[in-house]
């Protein structure tokens, strides 16, 4: 498989992953599936927009570049099409690195949020949500989950969505790393790849 065809497959895979990340981050604005009156009751890491910006918007640009790489020859280079493909492949490396950086941001935010735990109400009469857990202790001790009285099943909601962002971000980093290698091959061997219709 030539570098352009492989890049197109990566682009096709990255687009739905970016959409999943955006949707997951938006859902985190509704802890436990509830609409809260005060945005201060939402977990702080949600506002860092790791899924919307890092693994979402930033990832769309590399995905679109990868999709168009097969047909992009950069108008050739002094009439030499394979030279133009080398430049196109080199450009895809830069976009892959940018995408990996965005996904890494999302992964870091997700790790911090999972370790920190969600904001929740610890009593039925509580007005403002707080962080009831010490760093990470609720992950190994599920009995602590009883401290959270709401909104909804906020701990499961928090963990599920941030884990989706974490795993999806790691997959995106892996796919972008593949494109860096693929782009290097295309940059170095652009002329031989162009022979197979890349």
Description:
The protein is mostly helical and 198 residues long. It has one domain (3-194). Helix content is 63%, strand content 0%. α1 runs antiparallel to α5 and α3 packs antiparallel against α5. Mean pLDDT is 86; it is low at 73-79 and 191-198.
Radius of gyration: 21 Å
Gap between N and C termini = 9 Å
Q: Helix-strand pattern, N to C?
A: HHHHHH
Strand content: under 5%
Number of individual domains = 1
- Classify the secondary structure makeup into a structural class: mainly alpha
- The general outline is elongated
Helix content: 55-70%
Q: Please tally the β strands and state the result.
A: 0
**Largest β sheet strand count, sense and barrel closure:** none
Count, helices: 6
**What ranges have pLDDT less than 50 throughout 5 or more consecutive residues?**
73-79, 191-198
What is the average per-residue confidence, as pLDDT, rounded to a whole number? 86
Summarize the structure.
The chain has helices at about 5-30, 50-70, 80-115, 135-140, 155-190, 190-195. With about 200 residues, it is mostly helical.
Annotate the secondary structure layout.
Blueprint: H1 3-28, H2 50-68, H3 81-116, H4 137-140, H5 154-188, H6 190-194
Helix pairs in contact: 1-2, 1-5, 2-3, 2-5, 3-5
Attribute tags:
198 residues; mainly alpha; 0% strand; elongated; membrane; transmembrane; Transmembrane 4 L6 family member 4; L6_membrane; transmembrane helix
């Amino acid at each position: 498989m030539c570098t352009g065809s492989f890049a197109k497959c990566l682009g096709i895979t990255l687009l739905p992953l970016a959409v999943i990340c955006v949707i997951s981050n938006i859902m985190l604005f509704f802890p436990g599936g509830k609409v809260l009156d005060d945005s201060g009751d939402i977990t702080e890491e949600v506002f860092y927009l790791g899924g919307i910006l890092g693994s979402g918007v930033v990832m769309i640009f590399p995905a679109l570049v990868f999709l168009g790489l097969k047909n992009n020859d950069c108008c050739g280079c002094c009439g030499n099409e394979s030279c133009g493909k080398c430049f196109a492949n080199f450009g895809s490396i830069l976009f892959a690195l940018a995408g990996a950086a965005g996904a890494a941001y999302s992964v870091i935010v997700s790790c911090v949020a999972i370790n920190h735990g969600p904001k929740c109400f610890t009593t039925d009469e509580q007005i403002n949500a707080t962080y009831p857990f010490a760093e990470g202790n609720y992950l190994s001790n599920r009995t602590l989950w009883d401290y959270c009285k709401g909104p909804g099943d906020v701990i499961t909601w928090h963990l599920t969505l941030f884990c989706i962002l974490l795993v999806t971000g790691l997959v995106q980093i892996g796919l972008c790393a593949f494109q860096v290698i693929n782009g290097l091959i295309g940059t170095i061997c652009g002329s031989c790849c162009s022979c197979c219709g890349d």
